Amino acid sequence: MISPPLVLKIGGSLFSRAEGICSLLARKERPVLVVPGGGPFAQAVRETGAVGTEAHWMAVSAMEQYGWYLSRSGIPVTEELAMPETPRILLPYSILRSRDPLPHSWDVTSDTIAAWCAHVLGVPLVLLKSVDGIRSEGVMQQAIRSPVRTDDVDPCFLGFVLDHGIPAMVISGLHPERLAAVLDGVATTGTTIGF
Q1: Distance from C-alpha of 124 to C-alpha of 171, rounded to nearest angstrom
Q2: SS3 of the chain: helix, strand, coil, percent, to 5
Q3: In a domain, 1, yes or no
Q4: Residue 173 located in a structural domain
């Protein structure tokens, strides 16, 4: 049986767990396009005080740095926005520079960039973060079908996913068994969005 493809964003907050996450991905051999977060590289951009267009492209460059870091675990990188047969890590700078599809603002981070990739490819999206799912007003949400207030994803993410009908889920990368469950098509703890 061939597993369906998906876009998987690996959050920068999982920097210290990246090797284990990538090893799990490599073992599953599912068609997964990994979109790297920004992690400490994006934080360095924030600390410069840059805003607008300059900050946007600096932060996308930070995603590429994290992508190269993730590739140390043996998953190849790609600059093509296409579904691979086995896991690949997307280096998004060239694609985003050529298409420039999103606002240049700190309201758009790798969360929404990953959602845009999933939309273009027509595949589901999983955000792997260091939280169990999306919280709103202190309450963990099992499912979201309309925008809610939250700090767990960037401000543009929920609107973009819901407006474009992207099946999405937010799960914790601190629990490898949850990622394994998603890759195996098994229900797990997290927040589903739009389905």
Answers
A1: 14
A2: 45, 20, 40
A3: no
A4: yes
Give the H or E element holding residue 181. Answer: helix 176-183
Residue that wins the pLDDT comparison between 195 and 152: 152
- CATH number, position 169: 3.40.1160.10
Bridge partner residues of 32 (DSSP)? 6
- Calculate the alpha carbon distances from 40 to 49, 59, 77, 81 in Å: 15, 11, 20, 24
DSSP state letters, 25-63: HHHH---EEEEE--HHHHHHHHHHT--HHHHHHHHHHHH
Domain span at 136: 6-193
Tokens 């260091």 found at: 130
The C-alpha atoms of residue 41 and residue 122 are separated, in whole angstroms, by: 29
Give the per-residue pLDDT at 12. Answer: 94
Whole-number Å distance between alpha carbons of 128 and 132: 9
Residues whose CB falls within 8 Å of the CB of residue 163, separated by 6 or more in sequence, listed in order = none
Q: How many helices (H) and strands (E) would you count in the chain? A: 7, 10
Report d(CA 175, CA 181) in Å as an integer. 10
pTM: 0.96
pLDDT recorded at residue 1: 43
**Number of structural domains in the chain:** 1
The gap from C-alpha 53 to its chain's centroid, in whole angstroms, comes to 21
The answer to whether the beta carbons of residues 160 and 116 sit under 8 Å apart is: yes
To which residue do tokens 């490898």 refer? 176
Helix, strand or coil, per DSSP, at residue 74: coil
